[in-house]
Amino acid sequence: MPRQWRDRLAALMMKGLALACVALALSISIALLAKSWPVLSACGLRQLLLGSSWHPRQGAFGCYPFLIGTLWVSGLAMALSIPICLLCALYLSEHARSRLRAAAKPMLDLLAGIPSVVFGLWGMLAVVPVVRWLGWRAGVATTGYSVLAGGVVLAIMVFPIIISVAEEVLRKVPLEAREASLALGATRWQTTKHVVVRAALPGIIAAIILGFTRAFGETMAVLMVVGNVARLPRSLFDPAYPLPALIANNYGEMMSVPRYDAALMFAALMLLAVVLGFNIMAALVLRALERRLA
Amino acid sequence: MSHISIRELHVSYDGHPALKNITVDIPDRQITAIIGPSGCGKTTLLRCCNRLIDLTDGAHVSGQVLIDGVNILDPAVDIILLRKKMGFLAQRPYPLPMSIYDNVAYGPRLHGVRDRRQLDQIVTRCLQATNLWEEVEHRLRSSAAKLSVGQQQRLCLARALAVDPEVLLGDEPTSALDPLSAQQVEKRLIELKGEYTIVLVTHILRQAKRLADYVIFLYLGELIEHGPAAEVFTHPRHTLTRAYLGGEVS
Amino acid sequence: MEARRLEEAFFRGLMALSLLLVVASLASVLAIVLLKGLPSLTWEMVTQLPRGGYYLGKSGGILNAIVGSLWLGLGATAAALLLSLPLVCYLQREYGGASRLAYLTRLSLDVMWGIPSIVYGAFGFALMLYLGLRASLLGGIITLTFVELPIMARAIHEVVKMVPPDLKEASYALGATRLETSSKVVWRYALPGVFTAILLAFGRGIGDAAAVLFTAGYTDYLSRSLTEPVASLPLAVFFQINTPFPRVQERAYASAAILLAIVLLLSLPSRWLVRRWEAHLPR
User: Among the four residues B226, C169, C204, C229, which has the most C-beta atoms within 10 Å?
Assistant: First the structure.
């Protein structure tokens, strides 16, 4: 009967699509690896990762400054956002009335939807001058385009991700848990600290890792405020040159210099590797935690 | 002598009355059972005694609940000390997400006990009092979630005892347990009644008959009858009580 | 005793402060971009193409970027939708839900969700070279589809997961096939969620600069076919802010305001619409 055939045909097509999806994920890694092969074979992984000199026209592709720059900016963003986001999520789940919570959701959605360039623009207008002024007060010469500016802008960009995931996990902790603690004479904060956060810990860590992967790969906003100077930053007021910015800034020239395109593809490959690595780490950490707590 | 005195207690949820004008004294160091059909306010009454009712949105409480002469419904009262005095057993046992040892030690630690030996003593004593000690003494550090439901409820009892309460409140503490575990919990409660005032909510009449020294019968939020268990069960004065005990109303 | 109360009050204050900080950041971003951008927003900007010397301060507008972004967004969102629906359908239990392939698919979607859009840009570029395409509308659409697919698939999957199994059972009990149940019953239930997913992905696609940087090119004209380069709003903002002319920079703010307005227009009404829709669903 045609109905049965249609059903089976549809199921087959869906299966094919699923296969294609998995193939896509794999082919991204393979393609990037293939395209970076020329520079990998010419310079070797060690030189690429740890070399500090970046002079494409002379064939030097040391990515170390960019790696470190990325880590500085993302690290700062996480250091700023983790405490703020956790406290905010705790407030929303434990103390806020339902009206406040309902009002907060669309605000977080809005924050999540603002395009990267708009954040970058805001960063140029609002954050960079402040950093310049702070530098002046601290006696440091800076243009304002710095790790600090990048970290602040990036932190705000990851707020909605961490807060919404963390809040969801916290709300899932059953009411009985809080009651059990309060019935013993605990204050609300003690209950939150010892029981709620503990019970929600795997999810909270997942939220943080999610935020970090987003921060790591963010391109436009950071590019516009971070200075893009290929040197190892020595302080928060120094400029940096994160990997995504490197790729974005130089794509125009990459075809004219030999192996430049392969080097940029390698940078993209590194970003991919970090994201994959964090995904795996997150899954492992979550499994270990869940085993310990439950 | 009455430990807990309830005077003209009114509770309503979002305008719907749940308890109407309850006035009763709960005797000291006895097991008092609050019985009645479901939805008649038994749990509400219990939760007023340790102010857990505060956690319910839309609950409006008036009247007095006097514990040792102090009205605990007064906003100026120290809730933390109050809750320390009132141990609470919920219907479904909820072990805190920590080890067995930490579960029992949680309460004492909250209230300032830091000394390791003291904590060890408290944990041992409370686990022994609930007859859980032999079953868990070799795995105190393992997660409490791995215990069976019956063991978990006994753990919750040990946890409640650890803060040295005067009163134990139980909200149908055995209804989620298998018969064997329920029996064990009931035995512990009988053993404890000499030292603590115990108030139990139960919808199982046979349990009330087994355990209660004093009975409070609620129906649709109103206090119908109360008195020593022997009297209420054998010579109920109110027709509703008779109907409930006879199984006509449930 | 007092220490505990103090600790409680202190952290409660800190928590409220954090919420305030987050709200303040949102307000600051919206306020500054709109305040800077709206004054420079003229009718001319929205309706005209850049004339010669536009980037030096002469007249014209960014119609090319507005239309270009809309084409890119529509194309990518449509493609992502066409791909996500069958994918998510497959992940249901009655299809492949418990199979190895489904597990791998979910894993792939999770991984792809986390891949930064610049990596998609690089991959898209490599793909286009391989296929012999130039930087064009098609290239941009393909790359943006990669970006939007995991977002949309995840959002739709969340909704489909929440369809009550009783509902599906009722359909099967009447003799419906899997395809009929999915396309007639599940779809209707999931519709508000799918709608939200579409808006979410569209907003994300329009705002993405890194993915289209290499793959869509840029042009001062309205692109007339899939194989021509196309302008996009995020890149328009970027190029305009990077010029040394204040007049052009002000236009950058205005362009950003337009972009922000489009995204706002997408996300706010969607919530209201979804709530109205959901009122009609059986609970």
Answer: C204
Closest chain C CA to residue A213: C114
Chain B residue at shortest CA distance from A95? B55
Which chains does chain C touch, 3 or more C-beta pairs < 8 A? A
Report CB contact under 8 Å: B90, A180. Answer: yes
Q: Which of chain C's residues have a Cβ under 8 Å away from the Cβ of A218?
A: 116
CB C117 within 8 A of CB C123: no
Neighbours of C123 (CB within 10 A): 27
- The residue extents of the domains of chain A are 65-242
Tell whether B156 is covered by a domain.
yes
Q: Are strands B2-13 and B59-67 parallel, antiparallel or unpaired?
A: antiparallel
Domain total in chain B: 1
Find the closest chain A residue to C237 by CA distance.
A117
Phi and psi, residue B18, nearest 5°: -110, -35
Distances (CA, A) of A42 to A50, B242, C147: 15, 95, 32
| Distance of alpha carbon A174 from the chain centroid | 30
Which residues in B lie closer than 8 A to residue A288 (C-beta atoms)?
none
Which of C7, C122, C271 shows the shortest C-beta gap to A268? Answer: C122
Of residues A21, A268, A271, nearest to C109 (C-beta): A21
- Do the Cβ atoms of C116 and A275 come within 8 Å? yes
In chain B, which residue's Cα lies nearest the Cα of A196? B97
Q: Which A residues 145-174 touch B at CB under 8 Å?
A: 174
ipTM of the modeled complex: 0.90
Which chains lie within 8 Å of chain B at 3 or more CB pairs, if any?
A
Architecture of domain C47-278: Orthogonal Bundle (1.10)
Residues B2, B4, B7: CA angle, nearest 5 degrees? 105
Q: Of C269, C265, C236, which Cα lies nearest the Cα of C69? A: C236
CATH 3.40.50.150 fits A65-242, yes or no: no
Q: B69 lies in a domain?
A: yes
pTM score, whole prediction:
0.86
Q: Does the CB of A291 have a partner CB in chain B at under 8 Å?
A: no
Q: What are the two backbone dihedrals, phi and then psi, of residue B9, each rounded to the nearest 5 degrees?
A: -80, 125
pLDDT tens digits for chain A (294 residues)? Answer: 688 888 888 889 999 999 999 999 999 999 999 988 888 888 888 888 888 888 888 878 888 999 999 999 999 999 999 999 999 999 999 888 888 888 898 899 889 989 999 999 999 999 999 999 999 998 888 888 999 999 999 999 999 999 999 999 999 899 889 999 999 988 889 999 999 999 898 889 989 998 998 888 889 999 999 999 888 888 899 999 999 999 998 877 777 777 888 889 999 999 999 888 888 888 887 777 777 665
Cα A14 → chain centroid? 32
Contacts for A44-48: CB closer than 8 Å, 24+ residues apart: A48/A263, A48/A266
When mean pLDDT is compared over A282-291, B47-56, B57-66, C145-154, the highest value belongs to C145-154
CB contact A194 to B (< 8 Å): yes
Kindly determine whether residue A113 and residue C200, on different chains, have CB atoms separated by under 8 Å.
yes
Q: Is B71 in a helix, a strand, or coil?
A: strand
CATH (domain of B91): 3.40.50.300
**In B, which residues are within 8 Å of A186 by CB distance?**
80, 110
User: Could you tell me if B3 and B26 are in contact, meaning their C-beta atoms sit under 8 angstroms apart?
Assistant: yes
Answer yes or no: are the C-beta atoms of A241 and A66 closer than 8 Å.
yes
Residues 6+ apart with CB under 8 A from C89: A14, C95, C160, C182, C186
Q: Is B83's CB within 8 Å of A178's CB?
A: no
Q: C-alpha distances in angstroms, C71 versus C49, C198, C206?
A: 16, 15, 9
* Single-letter residue type at C178: R
C119 interfaces chain A, CB cutoff of 8 Å: yes
Other CB atoms within 10 A of residue A264 CB: 28
Chain B residues with CB inside 8 Å of A183's CB? 50, 52, 83, 86-88, 90, 160
